[in-house]
Each structure stands twice: as C-alpha cells, then as structure tokens.
Amino acid sequence: RLRIDDSRSILTRLPIAVSYKKIPVQKPGPDEVLINVKYSGVCHTDLHAMMGDWPIPTKMPLVGGHEGAGVVVAKGELVTDLELGDKAGIKWLNGSCLACSFCMQADEPLCPKALLSGYTVDGTFQQYAVAKAAHVARIPAECDLAAVAPVLCAGITVYKGLKESGARPGQHVAIVGAGGGLGSMAIQYARAMGLHAVAIDGGAEKGESCAALGAAAYVDYTTSVGDDFVRDVRKAAAPDGLGPHAVLLLAVAEKPFHQATQYVRSRGAVVCIGLPAGAHLSAPVFDTVVRMLTIKGSYVGNRQDTQEALDFFRRGLVKVPFKTAGLSELQDVYQLMREGKIVGRYVVDTSK
Ligand code: 8ID
Ligand code: ZN
Ligand code: ZN
C-alpha cells in the first residue's frame, strides 16, 4: 500500500474525500463505445475537479479520471471504425459536436458543446466507461496499457503545447513543473522533437528524475530565487545567456506565471498550460512590446495531436515514468499530489 503519514496536520490533509463503491455499468449510445478501462493515469486536473478549483462546476456525483486505457467491449450501431477487443483510450475530451466552426477546423477542444471526461461526464476512475467513438484514442495493439495511459492527457497536452510554442529543433524550451506528470512527458517530447529542455522544479529528487529523462539542465526554484533565478534559467537555457526560446508553464502555482516573461528570450513564447486555482497572469507591457513576446494558452490537443503523441510513444521515443496503485487507493494518490511529492505520474489499476 501507499505510505501516507496519518499524523499530518489538518492543514495539509485534503478536506474532501473520494468514495469507492459499486455503480451500474452505462450502456453506450449509438455513437459511443464502452471501454473496459484497465489503467487510468491520475492528472492534477482530477484533483482540481474534486477540490472545485475552477470557475466551471462539475457534474455531481462524479466519477473522475481522463487518462483511461483499456479495451472496447461494446459499441453503438453507428460505430464502424472500432472493433470489440481493440485497445482504446478515453481522454479529457470525451466528445464534441463535430459541427461547429471549431470542430470543423479540428479545434475541437474549443467546441462550446465539448464533453469533458471526469468533469462534465463520468470519467475513467471506474472499470467501464463510455466515450464518443469519434474522440476515443486509437491505441496501437503493441502498447502496454499501464504505460500508455498518461500519454492520453499529459502526453497529448505537452506535445501540443510544444507545437504551439513555435520552438524549432535546436532551440531551448524551459519546462516549468518539469518533475510532475506533464513535465516528465514534456522533457521527453521536447527532446524527441530536437529541442533542449531546461527543467525547472523543486528539490533534488525531481532534479535527478529530470536529468534521467533527458533534460539539458535543471534549475531548482527552491534554492535559486529572485534575480538569481532569472539569471540561472537564462544561463541554463542557451550558451548566449539570452534565455529560452519558449516556456511551457505546467506548475500548479501562480508565481511562475509572473516570472516567465522575465527570462524568456526576446521574440520568445510563454505557453500557459497549468491551471492553478484562481491564478492570474501578469507581465510588464513595456517588456512584452519591446521584446516582442508572445503569451498564449494551450489546451489539450485534437484527434490528430492525440494520434501523433501516441505514435511517439509507440516508436519508443517517449516513456512514462509511472508508479502503480489500486483505484481504491486514489485518495492517497491525491494526498501525495497535493503535497507535491509525486515524481512523474501515478497510474491506478481499476481492478484493485
Ligand atoms: O490542457 C491543459 N492546459 C492541461 C491538461 C492537463 C493538465 C492542463 N493541465 C494542468 C493541470 O490541471 C495542472 O494544473 O496542468 C497542471 C499540471 O498537471 P500535472 O503535471 O498533472 O501536475 P503535477 O504532477 O502535480 O505537477 C506539478 C509540478 O509543478 C511543480 C511541482 O513541484 C510539480 O512537480 N511546481 C510547483 I506546485 N510550483 C512550481 C514552481 N514555482 C513548480 N515547478 C516550478 N516552479
Ligand atoms: Zn489531465
Ligand atoms: Zn463543436
């Protein structure tokens, strides 16, 4: 079992708990599939959902989870391109209308009618979950379901974020929150895409993990502070000391969202991906203008990004540093996540 310290103070203990129980299996609609979820990654988004961190309410009661890897066990009569027994994944975008102008241009995460797994519809922290067939990830048969699960949100999201950053092979990208679930994947996608990853996170254990995953450098935000921090990131990022060409903000804290424009290279891009509760961005207008900075958001990925991200995994270009726990231990995983103690990703086995 996971080792959780029961003596922790009331301040660090999560104020809300999940419940683990038997629920009925849903029937797939005509355009849906039912997936026997074997493994599901635990994303910080699932904890945000439980804590009510964001301005949109969740379905209640809610089954969380959106990195579910499993096997198709039933399908609606309109589903022709997935067969029973196929490996498939349920991701954050459970479904979209496929008809609005965003869907028509493959910007389906922006669909006003998007269905979100583990948020507006039940997700993958259960053994059987439904999703719209059009949005189900096609997982290649040779992929291990536990190892591939985190690609379904963390992998897709950082791969898309790197593309949105505009960074080109040979350039430097700062990965902020590099020791976490998204960050661990970002280091590897960056490397596979020919970029130098400058990892930023806190503590020696995360530093070692980032180095093992192929980061070109590690800056520890707990020991490098103030002006030193800005100088250290710039120095780590490029031999000329002018800073990284792009920054991927994956941390679950507001402060790094204020710091990024201080060290990003002129004409560089700051890509916001992490979603800390109630956070705001700030940047000096003067610097943004005269250094021609770009500040943008990036939100999961579309179906094509999904298949590309999975293909990096299939080819062995990225691997997921993960630990496994039983679904019944989810609360303990959330507790570790809240304390920032998870290096890489936890994947829950839905049968335990
Ligand atoms: O589509 C999207 N935009 C999307 C998709 C998936 C997830 C956004 N997210 C969001 C999640 O909701 C969450 O807010 O990305 C964020 C990161 O998710 P995660 O990777 O699943 O979280 P994690 O594993 O807890 O990792 C967070 C890391 O940030 C570090 C922590 O040490 C941890 O390793 N961190 C913190 I907290 N403060 C930091 C700081 N000041 C920091 N790293 C660097 N500097
Ligand atoms: Zn996620
Ligand atoms: Zn739409």
Automatic annotation (TrEMBL):
Keywords: Metal-binding, NAD, Oxidoreductase, Zinc. It is an enzyme of class 1 (oxidoreductase). Residues 13-348 form the Enoyl reductase (ER) domain. The keyword Metal-binding applies. GO terms for cellular component: cytoplasm. Pfam families: ADH_N, ADH_zinc_N. The keyword Cytoplasm does not apply. Its EC number is 1.1.1.1. It comes from the Eukaryota. Its cofactor is Zn(2+). One of its GO terms (molecular function) is alcohol dehydrogenase (NAD+) activity. Belongs to the zinc-containing alcohol dehydrogenase family. This is alcohol dehydrogenase. The lineage of its organism: Eukaryota, Fungi, Dikarya, Ascomycota, Pezizomycotina.
